[in-house]
Design a protein that fits this description.
47% of the residues lie in helices and 11% in strands. The chain has two helices and two strands, in the order E-E-H-H.
C-alpha cells in the first residue's frame, strides 16, 4: 500500500505494527469522502453528475488497489 501512487488513493506514509499500539500514518487530505457526502444539508441529495464523478473515482482507486494487491500476492507466491 505504501508503494501505491494514484491520485484517488490516500498515500500510506508510515505504519506501526507493534502491539499494542497499531497505527497508520496517512497523507493529509483537504477533505474526506464522508464530508463530501454528508456535508450537504440534511435531506438534500448530491447532484447526479457529482455523485457519478465520485463513484467513478472510488472505483478507479479500488481497481488500482486491487491490481497492486494481486501483484504482491503473485510475487510472494513466486518465492
Amino acid at each position: 500500500m505504501g508503494r501505491c501512487d494514484h491520485p484517488n488513493i490516500c498515500k500510506l506514509l508510515a505504519a506501526c505494527l507493534a502491539p499494542p499500539k497499531l497505527c497508520l500514518v496517512m497523507e493529509l487530505m483537504d477533505t474526506s469522502l464522508e464530508s463530501l457526502i454528508k456535508g450537504q444539508m440534511p435531506g438534500q441529495l448530491l447532484p447526479l453528475p457529482k455523485l457519478l464523478h465520485i463513484a467513478i473515482q472510488v472505483a478507479q482507486g479500488l481497481e488500482v488497489s486491487r491490481q497492486n494487491s494481486t501483484n504482491r500476492t503473485r510475487a510472494s507466491e513466486a518465492r
